[in-house]
């Protein structure tokens, strides 16, 4: 089988990667050609033996997609356990640094936990756990994860509402028939200590149990007020392995007690120029989270080619947050705080930050059931791989807000027009005091938000094989989404009702038909080219929150076009490249504070390329690049975001990681992460500069154990990790230079 027979289109798309590989390609081509010649035109079988530390993954665990990524007409990036361990990635945010096109948002408004942008669009509610929406607001760890899968582009036909930029699926570790025990311990120069354990035990020839655990304590970054104290347990039981009927029961339980980081406010169009470790919260600030996920699934093979699956998942997240954030920068005269209204020439030492409380108790839960029938067969003279599914589910959301109204040098920061503002204190921009003084301000009951939604959907998809080279992919999904929300703000706020944008009550029913279509050309087993089209929708009450003007809004509608290719190079390196366009039509456009109209259009035109796998036996890489040309094309009259770049959307992102075995048992590696400039607010008046961050690793590898040193931010680069568009645009600095020593032992 000649794995290197590429036509001109393939050569053009992968040219970015071809330069460093010609010698290796020539070496691999000779035996492949000889094998092809000796077989007299027949295809010889190829046996590929994977290693436990391979970065490359050519399949997906998403049951709605073909297992082979060559048959998926969309870009898919898989970050597996080997890559995460090599980089010392312990959180979902760390793992997603390997995916070009992803940026991190900080906590803002009613949002806590992982808040992600994908291809220029919010993916806040597009995080999944084993194929089910994981909408809870919490910080996700990787201790129980086998891999993280990122499917690019609108995918409502597969997953229902959301997925404008794509979806992120966490694949948990499952019990198997191989006895194994793995224990790890690590410590950083910041003082963070962490340990994990993973135990898998076969109970019989067809059943097994697996338990994973994690605990960590200490400062997560070099920044002040970044302490975490987390622990978690995940377990799975699988019976019927290798039989016609397989049953899986799994659970994830996690507790987080973290210090929130709301970053730095802006002055003169940029993050305030202070020491990177400066924080404006209180030492008593904390975010406590309890997470419970329960999953039960059954898979029954009716025949070797027909499989019936049924799976139910329940997720519950309770968050208790006491948080203080920098709301604005201004001057203080006689105890009266006056926020800056534009640029200033005043020295930073003369300015103060007005802090605002973000206290709340959140309960977020969901229960969903999916039934799917998949079948392979021949009909009307063509081979088909078909899927029919039914999904029903319920989401619930309950938030009790609290506020702390304090003073600045003895003068109240709150007046009658904003009685529930939660302005808690004023502190120096340059030398904020880290104390518990502000915690003495009395906490009062604020708005009580409630929301719930019911979903019922049915979907059908098919991959039709026209011949050995051409396939057609199509699918339809019909969703009915019924949601309602409520707020108590008007009953507790003495301000005029006109000043409140929260809705006392609203409900919404959305019926939407999503479409997926594509064509695939596979001239050889090593090449796959595709053209695809997909749609998605975003109901206005998607996050179970709403403001004035959202009551009767239709859902935002998204569509994408993608042209790309995927190649296997020399049996061990996977390459991919694509160009795409995503349009969000009738987007919600801001009319006034908290008030929206469906008058917007957002367009993202982009290109991406990636390479994952081994260049040779000793050298492997994981590379990714994404170009995003994003713009708010139109909006309501007076919308100042029109013509601007969407928040937190860099034009260029590059991720790279490589390791090389320099001697038996010794490995060195490293990589760079590059991101061009971004804007921290919709009007593009707060700019955050681009950066390049370098990381490295050295490891001593043995069959039974690994000793690894990871070095993060080698050059101690000052950069901004996450952006927050609220309060004029805040930016969270990344951690300074840090080292982590870890030991991983296998029994």
Question: Mind explaining what this structure looks like?
Answer:
This protein is mainly beta. Helices cover 6% and strands 55% of the residues. A hairpin with a 2-residue loop joins strand 5 (127-129) and strand 6. The longest helix is centred in the first third of the chain and has 17 residues, at 22-38. The two termini are 39 Å apart. 48% of the residues are buried. It is a multi-pass membrane protein. It comes from Herbaspirillum lusitanum. Residues 69-167 form the TonB-dependent receptor plug domain. Residues 254-714 form the TonB-dependent receptor-like beta-barrel domain.
Which descriptors would you attach to this protein?
747 residues; 22-stranded antiparallel barrel; 42 strands
- 3D shape: globular
Largest sheet entry: 22 strands, antiparallel, barrel
- The mean pLDDT is 88
* N→C terminal distance: 39 Å
Low-pLDDT sequence parts: 1-50, 491-499
Radius of gyration: 26 Å
Percentage of residues assigned to helices: under 10%
Got a strand count?
A: 42
Give the class from helix and strand content and strand pairing. Answer: mainly beta
Helix count equals 7
Strand content: over 45%
Keywords: Cell outer membrane, Membrane, Receptor, Signal, TonB box, Transmembrane, Transmembrane beta strand, Transport
Family: Belongs to the TonB-dependent receptor family.
Protein name: TonB-dependent siderophore receptor
Pfam family, one: Plug
């Amino acid at each position: 089988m000649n794995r290197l027979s590429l036509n001109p289109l393939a050569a053009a798309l992968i040219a970015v990667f071809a330069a460093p590989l010609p010698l290796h390609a020539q070496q691999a081509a000779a035996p492949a050609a000889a094998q092809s010649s000796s077989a007299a035109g027949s295809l010889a079988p190829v046996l590929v033996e994977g290693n436990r530390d391979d970065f490359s993954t050519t399949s997906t665990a998403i049951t709605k997609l073909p297992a082979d990524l060559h048959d998926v007409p969309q870009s898919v990036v898989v970050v597996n356990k080997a890559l995460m361990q090599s980089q010392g990635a312990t959180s979902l945010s760390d793992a997603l640094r390997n995916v070009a096109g992803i940026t991190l948002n900080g906590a803002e408004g009613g949002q806590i936990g992982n808040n992600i942008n994908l291809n220029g669009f919010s993916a806040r509610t597009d995080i999944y756990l084993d194929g089910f929406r994981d909408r809870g607001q919490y910080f996700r760890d990787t201790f129980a994860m086998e891999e993280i899968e990122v499917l690019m582009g609108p995918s409502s036909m597969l997953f229902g509402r959301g997925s404008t930029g794509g979806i992120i699926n966490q694949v948990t570790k499952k019990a198997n028939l191989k006895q194994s025990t793995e224990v790890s311990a690590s410590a950083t120069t910041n003082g963070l200590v962490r340990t994990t354990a993973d135990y898998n035990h076969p109970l019989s020839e067809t059943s097994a149990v697996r338990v994973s655990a994690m605990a960590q304590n200490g400062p997560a970054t070099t920044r002040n007020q970044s302490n975490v104290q987390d622990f978690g347990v995940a377990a799975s039981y699988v019976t019927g392995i290798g039989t016609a009927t397989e049953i899986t029961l799994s659970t994830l339980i996690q507790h987080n007690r973290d210090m929130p980081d709301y970053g730095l406010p802006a002055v003169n169009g940029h993050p305030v120029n202070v020491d990177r470790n400066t924080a404006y919260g209180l030492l008593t600030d904390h975010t406590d989270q309890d997470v419970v996920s329960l999953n039960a699934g059954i898979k029954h093979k009716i025949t070797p080619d027909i499989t019936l699956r049924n799976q139910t998942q329940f997720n519950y997240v309770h968050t208790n947050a006491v948080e203080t954030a920098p709301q604005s920068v201004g001057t203080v005269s006689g105890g009266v705080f006056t926020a800056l209204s534009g640029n200033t020439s005043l020295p930073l030492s003369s300015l103060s930050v007005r802090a605002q409380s973000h206290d709340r108790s959140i309960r977020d839960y969901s229960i969903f059931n999916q039934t799917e029938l998949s079948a392979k067969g021949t009909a009307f003279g063509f081979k088909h791989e078909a899927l029919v599914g039914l999904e029903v589910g319920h989401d619930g959301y309950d938030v009790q807000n609290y506020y702390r109204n304090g003073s600045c040098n003895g003068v109240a920061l709150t007046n009658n027009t904003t009685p529930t503002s939660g302005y808690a204190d004023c502190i120096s921009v340059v030398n904020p005091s880290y104390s518990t003084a502000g915690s003495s301000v009395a906490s009062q009951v604020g708005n009580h938000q409630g929301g719930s939604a019911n979903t019922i959907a049915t979907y059908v998809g098919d991959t039709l094989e026209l011949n050995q080279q051409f396939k057609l992919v199509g699918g339809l999904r019909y969703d009915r989404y019924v949601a309602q929300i409520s707020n108590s703000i008007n009953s507790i706020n003495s301000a005029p009702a006109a000043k409140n944008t929260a809705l006392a009550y609203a409900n919404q029913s959305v019926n939407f038909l999503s479409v997926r279509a594509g064509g695939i050309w596979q001239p050889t087993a090593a090449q796959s080219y595709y053209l695809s089209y997909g749609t998605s929708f975003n109901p206005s009450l998607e996050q179970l929150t709403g403001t004035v003007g959202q009551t009767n809004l239709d859902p935002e509608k998204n569509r994408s076009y993608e042209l790309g290719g995927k190649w296997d190079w020399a049996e061990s390196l996977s390459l991919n490249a694509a160009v795409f366009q995503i349009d969000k039509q009738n987007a919600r456009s801001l009319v006034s504070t908290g008030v929206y109209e469906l008058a917007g259009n957002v367009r993202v035109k982009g290109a991406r390329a990636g390479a994952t796998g081994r260049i040779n036996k000793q050298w492997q890489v994981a590379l990714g690049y994404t170009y995003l040309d994003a713009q708010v094309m139109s909006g309501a009259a007076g919308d100042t975001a029109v013509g601007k770049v969407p928040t937190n959307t860099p034009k260029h992102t590059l991720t790279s990681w490589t390791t090389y075995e320099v001697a038996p048992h010794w490995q060195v590696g490293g990589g760079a992460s590059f991101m061009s400039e971004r804007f921290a607010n919709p009007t593009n008046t707060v700019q955050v500069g681009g950066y390049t961050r370098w990381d490295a690793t050295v490891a001593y590898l043995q069959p039974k154990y690994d000793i690894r040193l990871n070095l993060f931010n080698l050059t101690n680069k000052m950069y901004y990790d996450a952006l927050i568009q609220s309060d004029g645009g805040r930016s969270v600095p990344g951690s300074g230079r840090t080292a982590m020593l870890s030991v991983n032992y296998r029994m």
